[in-house]
Amino acid sequence: MRAMVLEKPKRSLQLRDVPKPKAGRGQLLVRVSTCAVCRTDLHVVDGELPNPKLPLILGHQIVGRVEEIGEEGNSKFEIEDRVGIPWLGWTDGECAYCRSGRENLCDRARFTGYTIDGGYAEFTVADSRFCFHLPDRYNDVEVAPLLCAGLIGYRSYRKTGDAHRIGIYGFGNAAHLISQIALYERRELLVFTRPGDEATQESSKKMGAKWAGGSDEMPPQKLDAAIIFASVGPLVPAALHALAKGGIVVCGGIHMSDIPSFPYVDLWEERVITSVANLTRRDAEEFLEIAPNVPVRTKTEILPLEEANTALDRFRAGELNGTAVLVVNAKGSGD
């Protein structure tokens, strides 16, 4: 099968003809239709995440059809069912984290497109317990970005609890998706972009944001919560400074540059800083149920599998106008 393979960090992916995988015990063999490109893919390629499986097939926003069901595979799937495969690919189910509903923190967890092969290929295998049926409302291109930007964004958003006035720092893919849910739930949205990025600020206002400005600006009112999607450490004290008493700053990325020091007074009065690590299956089930009701709409750019390096390079340079989605097997992928 064709696959785009990372042989070593900080190198371009290589188009290779590799053996087609087989479904093992409890696994599904999935014929990949589409796979969205994520910032985490960039972190892996750029060597910012340690110890990836090598050689590695990237990709963890996978949409495809079940080709084969391994022994003891999950009975909720049948051949030709459409499934989504996300970042969290396996947990032991036995540790204290798994037993307390925090499987996203499992010490032995395996991750799609990082420690196990992912979807930049014609076929992939996945633990059937960590695959999901997808809403019929979306075609294969539209739904792919929901499987990471959507899921991690949703977990970040839910960590804000019942906060009414929410600031979002970094208005990329995840922010665009989750903002739609926040507005649907009648939250007040304030958007912080790179200083001078007036185009994104205007775009967020048209979407429904009450206020938009640069990340170096203070909002007109203190925030009940802030979500940071940009991987920029100095945004943490900036968001904290803009926070009302008892508020929370949620760091939604898997990687972030160093956070500079800040005065204790900005943390005092029971303000909180927290991170989001991975996701749980419950997050996916909840999000995939609410998304078509909003409906959450995705903005995508389609590229063929062989142009994965182009997608990554354009992502790194900030040149994409939506989520890059690699089309692998075009049948059913939509326009």
Mind explaining what this structure looks like?
- This protein is of the alpha/beta class and about 325 residues long.
- It folds into two domains: about 1-145 and about 295-325, Quinone Oxidoreductase, Chain A, domain 1 (Alpha-Beta Complex); about 160-275, NAD(P)-binding Rossmann-like Domain (Rossmann fold), CATH 3.40.50.720.
- The chain is built from nine helices and 18 strands.
- The protein has helices at about 40-45, 95-100, 140-145, 150-160, 175-185, 200-205, 235-240, 280-290, 310-315; strands at about 1-5, 15, 25-35, 55, 60-70, 80-85, 90, 110, 125, 130-135, 165-170, 190-195, 210-215, 225-230, 245-250, 270-275, 300-305, 325.
- Strands 3, 5, 6, 9, 10, 17 and 18 form a seven-stranded mixed β-sheet that branches.
- Helix 5 links the parallel strand 11 and strand 12.
- Helix 4 crosses helix 5 (about 175-185).
- The two termini are about 25 Å apart.
Characteristic terms for this protein:
alpha/beta; Quinone Oxidoreductase, Chain A, domain 1; 6-stranded parallel beta sheet; 27% strand
Structural topology:
Elements: E1 2-6, E2 14-17, E3 27-36, H1 39-45, E4 56-57, E5 62-69, E6 82-85, E7 88-90, H2 96-99, E8 110-111, E9 123-127, E10 132-133, H3 140-143, H4 149-158, E11 165-169, H5 173-184, E12 188-193, H6 198-207, E13 211-214, E14 223-228, H7 235-241, E15 243-251, E16 272-275, H8 281-290, E17 300-304, H9 308-316, E18 323-327
Helix pairs in contact: 4-5
